[in-house]
Design goal:
97 residues; mainly beta; 3-stranded antiparallel β-sheet; two-stranded antiparallel ribbon; 1 helix; globular
């Protein structure tokens, strides 16, 4: 059985990656697969802007607080991921790595 795709994923402009940003009712936007993604396949290569611990308080006071990831060996830093990266589900148990 193939993947189940959101109808909106078929109407998004072509991307070099197997993903698209679509509206998610009650949640805002989300990133969905536009086709089957094989285990080990690269989904996207996204640059990262690392944030020092001292910068996190300022980031948390802005709308960027919803988009940054905890970062670093002790998760005491942060990172803003460019590309689609900051829209990915911020889960400690992700379905993709």
């Amino acid at each position: 059985m193939g993947p189940v795709l959101a109808p909106e994923a078929r109407t998004v402009a072509p991307s070099p990656f197997p993903i698209a940003v679509v509206p998610v009712p009650g949640r805002g936007r989300g990133v969905v697969a536009t086709r089957f993604i094989a285990k080990g396949e690269r989904i996207e290569r996204a640059p990262v802007i690392p944030l020092e611990p001292a910068e996190l308080e300022a980031v948390r006071a802005t709308r960027l607080a919803r988009y940054y990831f905890e970062w670093g060996e002790n998760e005491d830093m942060g990172a803003i991921v460019l590309g689609y990266g900051s829209l990915y589900n911020h889960s400690y148990e992700p379905c993709a790595e």
